[in-house]
Amino acid sequence: MRVFNNHGVSIVGAAVTLALLSLFALVINYSLTFNANLVQNLVQYHQAFYVAQAGFEYALKKVGSGQSSVVASPGLTVGSGQFTISQSNNLLTITGTVGNRVSQQTMQIVTQANCAELETEDANWKNGSNIIQHLTLEKECGQLDQIILDKVILEWSGAQPSEGTTKIKVENTNNLYSSPQLSETILDVIDELIGGNSHAVFNEIQFNSNLRGRTFTITVVMGDQSFLVTTFTPL
To answer: For 127, which DSSP code?
Structure first.
């Protein structure tokens, strides 16, 4: 007559049941962790989108007011994220970042240089001296509220180390330089804001010596760092 050892069977059954419960717990834990990460990534993705949208609105205001909209890394903080803005020609790229999630938006813009024209046809030497007058920077579009004259670069033919720019007068604002600024030097000027369909006149560009007969190239750099280049020979 065979006798079954029920005690041994119950131990094996308990061990199998415990193993199954452990495996089930691991599966549930993995599923919960995966879902939690999925939800977190989804939330951060939406947050990054709205951070980029905030950057888009920021860029619109800057462009409309005639200012540079570029924002370098680490960017500006919005909520739990940051946005940066880069510019390549007329294209702005706005990048919103929250955690490891990134959202990008792009914007085609009208640069200030696109909205301006530099008239040099009437440029001449003031009273036959070393001062050029009658250059006009005109605002010619309605897409921007205003444009800003930020910097000027002057270059002239046959430039010598002893020759330089000493003053640039735009409208009633004098920009004086403590020493003559050589050809091709970037010259800071006090920001000149041009709104509506208005203009700003270069009443005087003064040099420390007589440059009559030279050909000049003038680069005007706008507030958004776009620029216009014109070559002329004053009469």
So the answer is: G
State the DSSP code for 234.
-
Each residue of 182-191: pLDDT tens digit? 999 999 999 9
Phi, psi of 60, deg, nearest 5: -60, -45
**Is residue 22 over pLDDT 80?**
no
Q: What is the DSSP letter of 77?
A: E
Structural domains for the chain: 6-108 (no CATH), 116-232 (2.60.40)
Instruction: Report which of 108, 72, 103, 76 is spatially closest to residue 92, judged by C-alpha positions.
Output: 108
* 34 has a pLDDT exceeding 60: no
Return the number of other C-beta atoms located less than 10 Å from residue 186's C-beta. Answer: 11
Name which of 56, 62, 52 is nearest 225 in CA terms. Answer: 62
Rg (C-alpha) for the chain, rounded Å, is 33
> Model confidence over 154-182: pLDDT tens digits?
999 999 999 999 999 999 999 999 999 99
